[in-house]
Each structure stands twice: as C-alpha cells, then as structure tokens.
Amino acid sequence: MKSYSSHIPPQRTLMGPGPSDVSPRVLNAMARSTVGHLDPDFIGLMDETKELLQYAFKTENPLTMPVSAPGSAGMEAAFVNLIEPGDTVIVCINGVFGMRMRENVVRSGATAVVVEDDWGTQTDLNKLEEALKAHPEAKIVAFVHAETSTGVRNDAEKMCALARQYDCLTIVDAVTSLGGIELAVDDWQIDAIYSGSQKCLSCVPGISPVSFSDKALAVIKGRKAPVQSWFLDMNLIVGYWGQGGKRAYHHTAPVNSIYALHESLVMLHEEGLENAWQRHATVHNKLVAGLEELGIEMAVDKAYRLPQLNVVRIPEGVDDAEVRGRLLNDFNLEIGAGLGAFAGKVWRIGLMGAACTDKNVDFCLAALKTVLK
Ligand SMILES: *Cc1c(COP(=O)(O)O)cnc(C)c1O
Fold first, then answer.
1. Stretch 207-217: mean pLDDT, rounded?
2. Do 232 and 67 touch, CB atoms closer than 8 A?
3. Whose CA is nearest to atom 3 of ligand 1?
C-alpha cells in the first residue's frame, strides 16, 4: 500500500511575477490557532485589517476590505458589481490583464470598447480621450495600473482624471502596484480598485483587497438587475465585512489567511508606505545597473518602467527555458517567463515586497552570471 507523508516544499527565492517571498513573520502569524469567523476576536481583526487596507490604498472609502479569493476574484467583483447588461465600458489593453478585463466586461453582458496599445508601451491618453468622445454612452473606464505581463506602469492619475471629465467611473487593477509604487485612491478619485495579497504585500496568495468609492457604492445600490454572482455581490458582502455592529454570516472568511494579511499590512505600516515605494525604486535601480553590466537590456522605457517587475530581453542565442530551469534547480531561484506576445522573448524579474532587497539583487545577478556563462 502506498504511504503518504507531510509535504516539505523547497526553500526558493521568489523573484518572479508573484507570489513573492513571504516573510517568516507572516508565515508565523498564519500558523496561529484558528478562531470562529464570527468570534469577537476575529471581528476586531477584520476591522483593523480594513483600516490597514485603507492606509495601503490611501483611501477613506468605508467599503474597503479583502475578498476571500485571489486577485482574479477582486477583478471579477469590480466588474460584476458595477456593470449591468447593456452598459458600455472602455477597456484599455496593453497586456494580458487588460485582456482579462475585456473578458469580464463581455461576460457581464456589456459592450467593450477597446483602447489598444502595443505591449511594452503605456496606454495612450489621446487614444483614451478619442474613445471617450466617440462613446458618450460609456459608463466606466477600466485599466491596469501595473501591467505584470509587460512591466509597464500606466498613468493612473491622468487616466482617472480623463475618465471623470467624461463622467465615467473607473475600475483600476492594482494587483501588482499596491505597496510597490505610488497609488492614491482618494487623491486620484478611483471608483473601484482591486489588488492581490501575494505581490508587493508579500502575503500568502488567495486574498484580494478591494475598495469602492461612495459613488461606486451608490451605483451598486441603485442597480436594476441583481449582481449575477451571488458570492461577489457587494450588497450582500457588506453585511459580513461592513462597519461595526452586527455581522451576518455570508461565507466563512479564510481566518488564518486574514491573520497573514493583517501581519503583512502591519509590516507595511511599520515601514511606512512611502518608504516601501522608495525601497522598490532604489533596489530596482541597483538591479538595472547590474543587468546592464551583464549585457541584459530592459524591455520597457525608463519613463514608465515598473520597479517591482523588471521585464528584460532574453539575450540573443540564449535558451529561455534552460536558463530558468537552471536558476530554479541550481539556485532555488524563480524568475518569470514571458506571457502572450512576450513568450520566449523576455524574462520577468520581480522585486516585490519582502523579495525586494539588495541581497536578492546580488544573488540574482550572481546566479544569472553563472548560468549565462
Ligand atoms: C497577478 C495578477 C492578477 C491576478 O491575480 P491572482 O491572484 O493570480 O488571481 C491580476 N492582475 C494583475 C495585474 C496581476 O499581476
């Protein structure tokens, strides 16, 4: 008879597109004893987690909370709550995650107007404005702040200002941006935003922090058609995650994962949000200098490069899979492959959250140097 034993994973250094390294503090928090999800102790933790998420998003939005599922569920929550069948939504696409947004729009019964830009470049503000002018019926503008498939930062502040000028709500994907680069939900007047636990927050995967503005909440409350997803219907979720008072059972929150998220947010708060952004920028500069010494080129223009996700061109004549395989097997180091149009052409080197350190940069450069020789 086959026997089974505990699984012990290898100790990797995670420098890909996520998950990123989870610190021992967060892993220890996760191992604490499980309490009931309506236990007064847990309810206090829920409130504090929401406060810390407001800090991380720079928002006062009361509807700021973690969705009990990965970033893709946060994405879906934003779309299914704000869209009604027959709506028009402008979707900016310059990578994989913009394409997924479009898919969400279409599946919600709305018409997607696509503003498309080349992979590795920013969404063109003029094109967005043309689309807004051509589609006065548009209700929402949706875009990705930090496109993890290409390493490009879109200009969220300007895009939101433009959308507002044409009376559109905004849905922003901040899965890779939250905690890694400047993001200010209230100052930029973002209406719906979602993120992920496993990128620059360096928490375990499986949770999606979201925030909705009061304007977005009014749209959700005023819907004619019910939200097609029962699980992601914010009208129901607020009864569970809502401010103070009674908490009604909706689903069972992933209690231990919330311990982990809370700990990662406490760490972010201790460091200071702006200091975390600065650390990502400084460590990124060190990586870029080292890569250039190895003759490896960055694929994205400096003006809109993401510090937390470095997309680099695979040098001529180098076997993509072989290099990544040797990094993993010989060095326990994970870097990311290219996706979609970038498959086989680039590597994606993440410097997210706890993985964003000088030590990891030195380690990654030394490993790459050895393998490329
Ligand atoms: C990782 C990622 C997602 C999806 O998050 P999951 O937790 O994998 O579901 C969505 N958008 C962007 C920009 C991402 O990088």
1. 98
2. yes
3. 71
Spacing, Cα 339 to ligand 1 middle (Å): 13
Both tokens of residue 316? 């001529």
Banded pLDDT at 345 (limits 50, 70, 90): very high
Which residues, in sequence order, are bridge partners of residue 309? 350
**CB–CB of 320/347 below 8 Å?**
yes
pTM: 0.97
- Taking the centre of ligand 1 as the mean of its atom positions, its distance from the CA of residue 102, in whole angstroms, is 15
Rg (CA), the chain: 21
Residue with the smallest CA separation from ligand 1 atom 2 is: 175
Cα 72 to middle of ligand 1, angstroms = 6
Count CA within 13 A, CB hemisphere, residue 260.
26
Each residue of 62-75: pLDDT tens digit? 999 999 999 999 99
What angle is formed at CA 249 by the lines to CA 66 and CA 62, rounded to 5 degrees?
A: 40
Rounded Cα–Cα distance for residues 147 and 284 (Å) = 17
Structural domains in the chain, sorted by start? 13-18+273-372 (3.90.1150.10), 25-269 (3.40.640.10)
Q: Which of 19, 86, 67 is nearest to 223 (CA)?
A: 86
Confidence band of 229 (pLDDT split at 50, 70, 90): very high
pLDDT given at position 243: 67
pLDDT greater than 70 at residue 103: yes
In angstroms, how far is the first alpha carbon of the chain from the final one?
Answer: 47
Identity of residue 264? S
Q: Relative to the CA of 70, which ligand 1 atom is closest?
A: 7
